[in-house]
Amino acid sequence: MTGLVAAASAVVLVLGACGGDDGDETPAPGGGTTAAASEIKVGLAYDIGGRGDKSFNDSAAEGLDKASDEFGVEATELEAAEGETDAQKEERLRQLADAGNNPIIAVGFAYATALAAVAPEYPDVSFAIIDDATLVDEPNVASLTFAEEQGSFLVGAIAAQASKTNNIGFVGGVETPLIHKFQAGYEAGAKAVKPDIQIQVTYLTQPPDFTGFNDPAKGQTAAAGMYDSGADVVYHAAGGSGGGVFTAAKAGGKLAIGVDADQYLGAAPDVQPVILTSMLKEVDVAVYDMIKSSVDGKPLTGAKVYDLEAGGVGFSTSNSIVAPFTATAEDYEKKIISGEIVVPTEVGG
């Protein structure tokens, strides 16, 4: 057993109902044939935190579970370890490929360097990467990205409406160009509602330290500092660290905004009341689409962007306290889709 396997979380086999006898071939849409779905093996390489983070990785897992149930594919899941190198990520991807998984989905931009090295070694394997568009020229890689800035604009507009102190906050897990998109959209949405609103910003770690996506204690400390400095709504784009933001909001009697999944639904009952809304990033849809394309015999390649128009981002309404603010957000949504509003992707843009 390699050190990588020992460091990874348990490999999980997900088996759904088989769609036909082994060895059968079924027509692929548009012509051609593909192996029975029950013969397809899917490899999923999680980012730090893995299944159970109640955010980014769990959204990917939801898409995998749906595809497993619907198509009967077999899946192998491996989790990243904190502080690992690109070489270790490469080993994880090769392990999945050598085990016969096809497609293989890398969950998170942190896999970009590793996948750039591994994809050419396995030209007959279809790969996908979430949140990275640097590999669009690789013939066997699908780059599945999101318009995070658009969804963040909407929750920024909600935060500004909900704020009674004219002071809100943003907690980023790791300061990268991707998380800057969340911040840029959030700030633009808030200022569209209240041009003079104060926005506090904190990043938990700097690259190459990616533990900021899985450190609830740091998230709690950062958010508590913002609340103490006058903020009454804090939005996090920090993965598993967001749990700490919710804890701080509850302790301070303030509000928080989740990310990626509808975090109200997965939160403990005592924390749910402080989760005003969540910026929905439908990673589950991207994962499902990649698997379905392989089942159909036409694996995705190139770039695919999940934006507001495609239903790839949005905001949740599970907590009824958000109701007074949704009409304004929905109006902005229409203007973004029509092109009347172009949301910046860079801070200060």
UniProtKB/TrEMBL annotation:
Q: Which GO terms describe its cellular component?
A: plasma membrane
Membrane disposition: Lipid-anchor
The record's annotation in CDD domains points to: PBP1_PrnA-like (cd06354)
The UniProt entry, under InterPro entries, shows: BMP_lipoprotein, Peripla_BP_I, PnrA-like
Q: Which domain of life is it from?
A: Bacteria
* ABC transporter substrate-binding protein PnrA-like domain segment(s): 47-345
**Main location as per UniProt:** membrane
Q: Which SUPFAM superfamilies match?
A: Periplasmic binding protein-like I (SSF53822)
Key word Signal present in the record? Answer: yes
Which family, according to UniProt?
Belongs to the BMP lipoprotein family.
Q: Which PANTHER family match?
A: ABC TRANSPORTER GUANOSINE-BINDING PROTEIN NUPN (PTHR34296:SF2), TRANSCRIPTIONAL ACTIVATOR PROTEIN MED (PTHR34296)
Name of the protein in question: BMP family ABC transporter substrate-binding protein
Which organism encodes this protein?
Answer: Frankia nepalensis
